[in-house]
Amino acid sequence: MPTDYIQQSQLRRIIISIGKSSDAQSDRARNRNGIAMTQGKHFAAGGDHFAALPNKKIHTPKGIARLTVTAATMAAMTGSSLISPFTAFAQTGDGGTQHPAVMSPIAAHAGAASGAGAKSAAQTIADLQKAVDEAKAKEDAAKASYDEAAGPYNEAASARDQAKASYDSAVNAGTAADRAAMDEYARQVAEGKDAADAAGKDLEQAKAGLADAKADASEKDEAYQSALKAAQDAKDALDKAKADAVSATPEAISAAEQAVRDAQAAVDRAQVELANANATLADAQSKLVAAQSAKDSADAVLAAAQQNKDAADAKAAAASAAYEKAKADLAAAEAGASGPEYDAAKQKVADAEAALAAARAVQSQCESELEQAQSAAATAQTELNDAQASLSAKQQAATDAESGVNAAQSALDAANADLDAAKQANADAVAKLDAAKQAVKDAESAKAAADEELANAKTAKDTADAAVTAAQQKVGEAQTKVDLADAQLKQGAIGFFKAMGADSAIEIIQNCTYKDYTEIGNSLDATGLENMLSSITVMKNVNAYRKSVGLSELEVSYKLIAAAIADANYSTKNVEHAQQFDVGENLAWSYRDPCKVWIYQEKDLFDKTAASLGATNLSGKDAYDFWYANQDKFDYYRIGHYMNIINPDYAVMGCGLNDDTRLTFSLTLQYGGWAGSGWNTGAISVDEYEQKLTSYINGLKNAKSALDAAKADLASKKQAAAGAAATVQQKQVAADFAQADVDAAKQDVTDAQRAVDAAKADVAAKQQGVTDAQTELDAAKSDLDAANAAVDTAKSTVQQKQVVFDAANAAVTTVQSKLDAAKADTSAKQQSVADANADLAKFFQDVADAKKALDTAKSVHDSAVADQVEKVTVLAAAEQKADATARALADAQRAVDAAKADTGVAADKLTGSQTDLEDAQSNLDILTGLAAKLAEAQQREQDAVKAVNDTKAALDAAKADTAAAESLVSAAEQAKALADAKLSKLNSIDAGAAIASGHDVNADDALNALFAAAVEARAKVAPAKAILDEKQAAVDELQSGYDAALAAYEQAKSDRIAAEQKLSDEIARQEAKEAAKQQAAYTPKHLAGTDTAQPGSLAQTGDRAGLIGETFVIGGTVLVAAGVFLDQKKRREQM
Predict the structure, then answer these.
(1) pTM (2 decimals)?
(2) pLDDT in tens, 1020-1037
(3) CB neighbours of residue 144 within 10 Å
């Protein structure tokens, strides 16, 4: 190593400044052997190393611009022209000469025109012109002094104006940057508030939806619980109904129905028998009434006959006594009479009386026969009536029997119809049984399919649940990362090194000599992750250059990064090397890209020195080796950074950036292999380092979005799981329904089988009913045949009785005729007796009277006896009739009693049959009622199960809706929390402080970029102000000299203008004096023609210079003067 190296401790405070820039920064480099380099620059905040000031022409004010004219006149005292021909030069305000104008040739006459007479005037003009020339000379001298002072002054003023413009631009840029940051901050706050408000509204809506969903789920749950209770009640009722209906089998019901039919048939038969018994009883009662009536009539006749007999007996006894007395009287009378005529008369009376007695006997016999005939007729009438009544009864019985046959036939027809219906019902039941069996197969197939779908749904649910569990785990991991992310972000490099396992790098930062300069958590500190990212550009640029010159690219080690970070933190506060690590180091302050200085500017210096040593176009290792061989010839302090970068022995590097007090870069370098052991361990490429750092930062920054994504994924997975659960529930419900369908189908088979069994039993019962009905029909037909035979017999009896009755009536008629004849004969015989007695009476009155009396008594006696006999006969007949009617009444009473007994038996049988029917019907009603209750209970149980399934499905759907609503609420809460957190972070930002510092930990990259831009923009204000102040100081330094020169120049100019004014006034005066006499002699060229120079042939500067080249005759002397003198007033106005 060269011995003339200066140790770092001696150079630490050396700062070389070039120029007058008050805020230029040093750029220093130190190689691994400790040599420090310092290099200054003009600009304060980066940029080119040197900057040249702009160079501009200085223009005088508008009023100062004028046309300067050099005028020549013929001096009287010399008699010759100064200039021939006169030439005038037009000079612009910046000193440039334009278009020389040649004076008119008439000026040649000036000498000739001058003479003694004109000398006085010419001398005056000459004196005045001399004064003008002197004033002009003084003005030129003042102008030269002014120009001499104005040059630096104007240059300084221009630099000041440029600095002022830069300063104003920086101020405006800073204000604009501040405003942009504030506007963006206000926009983000407003946007955040809108988002928070919207999230709040969404949350309220989601909560309202959740409340509705919970209310609906609660309602559905109540309905489900009610359905469960109803189902349990229905099941209990079904169990009870089954227990109660254990005896209500189809067989029992069929038997009960048959029992009802048998009982009904028995009732029907008993009713027929009762009806027949009632008919018989009615007939017997009718006969009893008739017999009673006949007996009553016979008794009345008997009583009357007895009374009549008793009266006849009394009358007969009286008549017999009267007759005996009359016979005695007659005997006594006869005893007093005699003679043959008397005897003949007496015999005539006797014969007449004998004939009368015989007639009376015949009459009596006829009367007796009449009574007998009448009795026989009455008996025949009674028997005919009885036969007719019996015929009516038999006919009614036959009618009833026919009705019974018809009823039995109808019953048979009905039974056959019932049998046909039962057979059809049996066929239908068999078909339903077959359909039910097929339905069972279909339901079992559907159940199998439902079970498979349920199994698949459960598998999907398990998968979804597993996904939820995994997603929850990811949310937990993401939440942990979020919880750690902010802390890790604030930890900066420490967190990164910890994540990379680079504990030795952490040890360097935390325990180095100047560890107190490191501010963990300050984003502007070199440990800030963004600064670490920004420093990568420097390392890439270093490698890009090394690669371009054939050197190997340097790798990165975490320890060298840590060393660069620690050094940058120290050096940003202390503009010097920290020298706390045994590494090579480059430092730079206030450069965005220090490589421009480290490499390119220093390379230029290197190349110049190398060129002076005869070496050109050196780069890379050649340049380094050349320097190494000629170190004493180089100013290392000005090229040391460059040498470090092209050092071929370096293998690893690190870079740190602190942007707090000032922009400070530290590039640390170290050898490879054993020479750099401890520093080059675990070296990686710059790209790999960038990838690891970027991934780490993005991982932290994206932790929240990753959490949000994980939560969103969890919500999605939960929703999917809820959907899967809902699907399972739906499939479970479907499977339950399918099972219910299977159970129902099986129950339908059971019911159908029962229906078939019942139908078969019913067919059998209906067949038995047909058989029974046929038996009843046969019996009814037999009864009808018997009844018809009885009717026929009764009709024959009636016919016989009618014949007897008719014969009896004929006999009565015959006997009555005989009786009528006998009565007529008796009456005739009585007349004969009367006539005989009259003849006998003629013989003697007494005997006659006695005979008459005897006849009368005899007649009365005979009549009474006959009446007595009649009455006896009648009484006997009446007694016989009474006895017969009594017997008939007794027989009728016995028949009635027997009929009543038969009716009672039939009634009792009917009552028993009805009781049996009622019992059978009650038993059937009980059985059918139990069966109906069982069927009703089964239906209710099925309905209740369906209601449970329906309400369960509705509850599950409501729960799914609630879960979905909870997910929405959760998502809305998360969104609200995120929005609130974002708004809270925004509200926690002190925009003023952030704009001042350039960063806020709670601001996003865009806002921090604007904050940083504001800081950067404002950072340019101070340097610009410093430059402005510097330039203003330069102006101020020159101001007094410039002001004095300007004042002197203005005074000289004013004196010159006054002298010119005097000359102008004198010329005007003399011109006015000579005008009258000279006007006719001479016409100025500018009024004559085209030979005169025209305005516009000279440079136009804004002055009225068109009078150049005019000639004047003053006092006989031709004077050529510049038009500027005649336009002086205008120039004054312009000034």
Answers:
(1) 0.32
(2) 888 888 898 988 999 898
(3) 12
